[in-house]
Amino acid sequence: MYVHVPFCRHKCDYCAFATFTDKAHIVSQYLLALRTEIERAAPSPRAAAVFVGGGTPSHVSPHELVHALDAIARHDDAEFTIECNPDDVTVELLQVYRSIGVNRVSLGMQSSSPHVLATLGRTHSPDNVVRAVDAITATGFTTFNLDVMYGGAGESLDDWAATVQQVVALGAPHVSAYGLTVEAGTALADQPARHPNDDDQADKYDIVDDILGAAGYVNYEISNWAKPGHECKLNAIYWSGGNYAGFGSAAHAHVDGRRSWNVRTPDRFIELIEAGRPAESSFEVLDAAT
After folding, report:
1. Could you give the CA distance from residue 283 to residue 280 in angstroms, rounded to a whole number?
2. N or C: at which end does the chain have fewer Cβ atoms within 10 angstroms?
3. pLDDT for 86-139, tens place per residue?
């Protein structure tokens, strides 16, 4: 199951996701609508894995967020992940999440180099990543993910190697490493001088694979490495063509070959849910070719 929280404090230069920085006034209304959409889906199969992404879920009120998420029917041993910005993470925040069974955090680290973070349009500092990981372990989480990104303007091979080595030093059981991509409509798209180089990214992929492999991580999916037993369950569902539900604006779902997606904006999502209507925007039926 994927749950979308589309609100951000700041939009990263490379981000093309359905996220918004100017809609703080509807966050509470959105989270109530989100709970309603989840409740309307019942009874449905209990979730084996839940991923709450965005956007920045940690940017909204944790109490209002868990009120919405607590409506999710899930297995007792379900993987339950929330994405967080390092700037937001505190022990107090994580304790609220854990109160409803969240057992995994995905932290947007991206780089350990301040100048690379700046070129990506990120606002957090490397020190805040360390502080956030300390809070994650202090709160009792036994698994978590660090997202990192390679190919930013001005990032040397040594910069990238240092980032991956920091990931290992922080003890992350799971690592997602993505090559920077240029998407139409983003701030990055309008600045060709900042676009990544394919050969440079290929070299950096080799670096991350070598360092993580030597540290005992298994590359179980092209952009994901994990210590044994810490693979992301939802990734496995996605890549095996399994069924998953999607809740919230712009969320996608797949059930028995039918792939659907909700309306893109939170305003329209709220309008439809409050009117008692489904939030689905469109769908497609997959065949052997797709």
Report:
1. 8
2. C
3. 999 999 999 999 999 999 999 999 999 999 999 999 999 999 999 999 999 999
DSSP string, 266-282: HHHHHHHHHTT---EEE
User: Beta strand pairing status for 104-110 and 74-84?
Assistant: parallel
Q: What is the pLDDT of residue 42?
A: 83
Instruction: List pLDDT tens digits, range 190-224.
Output: 999 999 999 999 999 999 999 999 999 999 999 99
φ/ψ region of 243 (left if φ > 0, alpha if ψ in -120 to 50, else beta) reads beta
Residue 77: partners with Cβ closer than 8 Å, 6 or more residues away: none
**Strands lying side by side in the sheet with 258-262:** 252-255, 258-262, 280-285
Q: Are strands 74-84 and 144-150 parallel, antiparallel or unpaired?
A: unpaired
Alpha-carbon gap, residue 4 to 215, rounded angstroms: 33
* Topology of the domain covering 2-285: pyruvate-formate lyase- activating enzyme (3.80.30)
Q: Distance (Å, rounded) from C-alpha 144 to C-alpha 89?
A: 13
pLDDT for the residue 290: 64
Q: Name the residue with tokens 């992301």.
A: 232
Q: How many angstroms separate the CA atoms of 255 and 2, rounded? A: 13
Delimit the domains of the chain by residue range.
2-285
Six-digit token pair at 55?
């956007």
Could you give the angle at the alpha carbon of 94 between the alpha carbons of 90 and 95, nearest 5°? Answer: 115
